């Protein structure tokens, strides 16, 4: 497996989702994560009718943040929270993309 991309939280009623992704380091810097995120955003808006997508990344994971930015997601806030695996406090960045922010037609 080279990686994964998925809806971490999908709320059809509210027409929003949080997206999570990872890529094995052997495949970094090839544009694969960016391409996958562009395609999932397109499908979310065009096929599922979602209106709002969010991505939350660890602040120190600059590459993951850059993928979100290249697709058109905008940084909306920075916050501290508990890591869901280690339960240690970490710094996070929250990105948002709304339908109409970028053309997915």
From TrEMBL:
Residues 1-98 form the N-acetyltransferase domain. Keywords: Acyltransferase, Transferase. InterPro entries: Acyl_CoA_acyltransferase (IPR016181), GNAT_dom (IPR000182), N-acetyltransferase (IPR051531). One of its GO terms (cellular component) is cytoplasm. GO terms for molecular function: protein-N-terminal-alanine acetyltransferase activity. The keyword DNA-binding does not apply. Pfam families: Acetyltransf_3. PANTHER family: [RIBOSOMAL PROTEIN US5]-ALANINE N-ACETYLTRANSFERASE, GNAT FAMILY, PUTATIVE (AFU_ORTHOLOGUE AFUA_3G00765)-RELATED-RELATED. Belongs to the acetyltransferase family. RimJ subfamily. This is Acetyltransferase. It comes from Streptococcus troglodytae.
């Amino acid at each position: 497996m080279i990686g994964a991309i998925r809806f971490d939280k999908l709320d059809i009623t509210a027409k929003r989702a949080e997206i999570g992704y990872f890529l094995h380091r052997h495949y970094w810097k090839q544009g694969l994560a960016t391409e996958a995120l562009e395609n999932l955003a397109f499908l979310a808006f065009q096929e599922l009718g979602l209106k709002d997508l969010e991505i939350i990344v660890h602040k120190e994971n600059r590459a993951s943040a850059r993928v979100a930015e290249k697709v058109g997601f905008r940084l909306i806030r920075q916050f501290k929270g508990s890591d869901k695996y280690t339960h240690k406090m970490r710094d996070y960045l929250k990105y948002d993309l709304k339908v109409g922010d970028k053309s997915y037609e």
